[in-house]
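Batch job 17 of 40 flagged for manual review because the log was empty.
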Amino acid sequence: MKLLQLIVSLAVMWHLAVCFRYPSADWESLVFRLPADNTFYGRKCKQHSRFYCLDKYETQFQPLLQFSGTPDRQDRQQTEEETLEVASEFEQLLRDKWSKINMVDQFRPSHCCDGQTGKYLFHGFSNLGMTPEQYMFKLTDYSEDNKPLNFISSFYVPTMCRNVVMAVGFGPGGLLREMNHDNGVAESAPYLIPGHEFHPSVAIPNIPSISFDYFDPGSQLTFQWFKTHIMCKDQHWICDLSVSRHTD
């Protein structure tokens, strides 16, 4: 359990450094990472899936919301006993599901559940007071309601004249562009998800490469598109579930 506490502490420190970047107070995002050999997370993800990994349901750091005057999220002091209890409950929920939903630990991609539980404790329990069941629902709700593209992370590849996508997120709030990579991002250059035409080190198999307009990527890169063309290629049950819901 000390490992969990360390993960949460590191997450808090990281979030403090970047929490100013959120575009709106209601911003939350279901974040997915793409497998590729040129990023740490991408390499770890690729050990589990050649298509995608579910990173987290990201929420905003609580003190920022309090400082900005958000009235409906009050300060909560969780005791260690409460934290250990909900951590154990979430781990039990996740243990049989993590592989099925591609939620890997970026440090130990073949193991469950320290890294994943740390994300729940920070983004779910600490920030919003979510129960394990509520956070799990956020992680596994693949309906298309209120899920515009609101997060994109990429890096610019001069030889392609494209910003190659490393991660995307869907949910309420404006679009957040993550641009803290060594190669930066070229404004106005289209975003690219590399398909089978590219080298296996960066390509997602069995899909053609597709580019998205830099200024309005969400007009094409919708959650429906991402789910159909990437998620369901790896986890067929996701689209099977969507079809059954539409026909019920």
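Reviewer: the log was empty due to a logging misconfiguration, but the result itself is present. The beta strands are 29-33, 53-58, 149-157, 162-170, 176-178, 191-193, 210-212. Unflagging and moving on to job 18.
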